Amino acid sequence: MARPRDKAEIRKKEILENFYAVLAEEGLEGASMAKIAARMGIHPSLIIHYFSNKEEMIVALVDHMLAMYEEAFLPRLQEIDDPGLRLEAAIDAIFGMDWARLVDGGVFYACYSLSYRNDRVRNSFQRMYSRLRGLLVEGLDGLMEEGIVVKADPEKLADLIISLLEGYDFYRGIMEDTIEFDELAQFLKENALAIVRANRQT
Known about the structure:
Blueprint: H1 4-30, H2 33-40, H3 44-50, H4 54-78, H5 83-94, H6 97-102, H7 105-114, H8 119-145, H9 154-175, H10 181-196
Helix pairs in contact: 1-2, 1-4, 1-7, 2-3, 4-8, 5-10, 8-9, 9-10
């Protein structure tokens, strides 16, 4: 039997999933608690019981999106014992279409735009990027100790990979109909790997 706290977490996740769906369909301006409640077949007061306003829901949604990425990709990476292959798989994953399609770009950037005006939303995005950065730094640090990648600042290498990824995602969202993005993704993956493997020790 689920405990009350477990039930609350399940209900919150359900609300966030429906908030995400309404955002994807109607944008941030059109996503009201009433529409979310209607989609779920519940009274809006039940949503307010868990999230007092839309700002709280957006902050929680950013954390929810991070969980979506982690649940989709971390388990498969953790199954790879070889650190060099794990690096290749990680870079292949973050520049792959599964990663790009996991979260709706309209939802992501609608929330992201609020980070310029809302410190709580900004902090939520900082947590998300810090988590990704930390995972990359941890992996790169271990690979440097084994001489698999260049001896360099792992934080700067992680920043480089994230900057390439975010630039690629933004550019793809705008220019998807005009550029062959599979080729661009492959080019970025090859160059990211080449950079972190530069001057590989033997």
